[in-house]
Amino acid sequence: MYSFEPNEEQQMLIDAVGKYAANDLRPAAHDAEEEREMPKKLISKGWELGFLQASTPEAYGGFGERSAVTGVLALEEMAYGDLAGALSVLTPSLFATPVLLGGTEEQKQEYLPKIVGGDWAPYTGALMEMSFDFDPNALKTTAQADGEKYVLNGEKVFVPYAKDAEAMIVYANLNGVTQGFIVTKGSEGLSVSEERDKLMGLNALPMYRVKLENVTAERLGGASGHDFEPILSAMRVASAAAAMGVARSSFEYARDYAKEREAFGVKIAQKQAIAFMLAEMATEMEGIRLLTWEAAWKLDNNKEDSCIEAYLAQNGAADMAMMVTDRGVQIYGGHGYIRENPVELLMRNGRGFAALLGLVIL
Amino acid sequence: MTIDFETPKPIAQMQTMLQTVAENMMRTTSREFDENEHAIPWDYVEFMHTAMRSMGGGGGLAPTDEKPKEGAEKRPPIGYQRLAAQIEMLAWGDVGYYLITPGGGLGAAAVQAAGSPEQKAKFLARFNDDKPTFAAMCMTEPGAGSDTSAIRARAILDEKTNEWVINGEKIFVTAGDKAFNEYEKLGKGFIVVWASIDPSAGRAGMRAFVVEAGTPGVKVTKLEHKLGIRASDTAAISLVDARVPFENLLGKPTVEKTTTGFKGAMATFDATRPLVAASGLGVARAALEFLKEKLQENGIQVRYGVPRNKLTAIERDVIDMDIQLRSAWLMVLKAVWMADNKKSNALESSMSKVKAGDVTTKVTQKAVEILGPLGYSRDFLLEKWFRDAKITDIYEGTGQINRLVVARQVLGYSGKDLR
Fold first, then answer.
1. Is B403 on the interface with A (CB under 8 A)?
2. What does the alpha-carbon distance between residue A198 and residue A176 come to, in Å, rounded to a whole number?
């Protein structure tokens, strides 16, 4: 039976996250970006909303079940506040969610209760590599079996909070198949760059390069490993949901500005040239939002084509976010180019969805 | 309620059934009725009438819900959702045929939206009779398209006979021939004519009148020759001192300062825009499936899941078409789901039409481009779908008019604020 209405619990979560996004993240976004730091207080406050905790079963210290649909609803709201803030708050998921999806019982018991039971702590994941043809299904970082353990070699980039991370999931190529490996702090051969990675946007999110030289690691899912596809799809729908939030933020700023700004005796929103841009932005957002919802719903319900739809949603959202955030700047005119105005950062963040994957997971 | 994308069983069953109809009764003769414009595919018309009646569809395409059996749990209404899915599948078969599916069409939709209970009973019962029956909407005039307030047709009450006397020129009346002219194989239909009862009142004076088939003074003066949807008759109709009974007026006979009459027309469009969107998306899906089939025959696999900077141009195009088509369809579903649940959907309805107009034209155009000679040749149906597709972005409000509606909605503007 079709329905497009979040349930009561989801609505409560949307409201709570939406409030945090509007009242806490949005006002902090500009300074956090310029100062390259998200205030710890804000991250803790976001963590206390309990999104990851509510997505982790009781057996592992949480109080709910994971739902990608609930996830995309919450993440759109949070990213609406600020993308770097949302990714900071959700960084521990980069470790916890793959463990939940692909880990052995022991791995789940070992890590999940301490992650979800405590304060926000830097557990993270390392997927991206610095190459033009980066492909999550054809990684250059390698893994080789060595008895029960595995040996990793390669270099990862854009790893959130890697410097202080207690542990991270490192994705590597094991005989042509992508697998996750649990790499713990201080492992021999593991080095994290002193310098943070510098990107076009997302400067409030500390990201590092991680070098692996014969690092011994435990395989996610033990000897038999795990299926990478659900993890990848969970990253794809997360990327789409975050793109939605960024786009909506830019759209709303532009809409409100267009209703204030006057030219030739009327508000610029009263000119069809501007009004039609806004109409098309709203239309594109609506379509991609529904595609993202459906992809998430298919993942939750193990539908056959869920991975394809997650891929479609991710790519559609990347285009949509670019189109909307570009127009956000355009509608502000010269003012949109000035960093004081929020649409400027949103445009930089908007392009990120075409280039980045694995910085957020649901 | 919770977010759910599972196709309801009755809809899934209906889709399977209609796909068979599409494959065996529509696609097989699609070309023939495209080349012989104004010929009528009677087999389809009669089969659909019988089929829709036996399915309890009121003898035509209309949003229907089963009456819950006594004691059975009441299910949420899905009438519009079912209708959108029906239309999408029929249009996948042949959108020109879909437009001549017997039943009330837009004419009956106007009666549904603006008629009294008595009028609904009187005018809508006929669609369930033995013979297939048509109704049509006469809105557009040579000088009035999307700007319906420019309508010149005039209705004057003759108080002696208590009849409305209507004069005017109407064009682009879909199924106007079958609704108004009498055919032995068809039941008696009607057209719904929009005319002003008080030109000084502007839109507030606009009313809709049910004009029965064969009414003296009314004439189908022309059947248009079109780019596409050639199986569908598009009529020009002239009304010269046409007399209709007083009670055939839909809505109130008095003019107040409000624009209720006009809003009646607009309410019809809120309900029908996502349905028109659905008809376009059926054509787009046909084109995309044909494209994929031909690519496969030629050994070209689309590698879903591979990063886009590693894909070929064709792969990128196909994947983008998938994204666009699916999101457009979900927008239609949401708009009709809102209609079923009595939620105001003016925004979603127009957004779905804007999106479907874009997607339908772009997908069919791209498919022809990619397939080159195979796309352009009349040996295949793709070139026909390209021609059929274009109407989606035009009728039921052009893409531009719908953008205006969407813009007003998202800005909270009236027609005065944003012209």
1. yes
2. 30
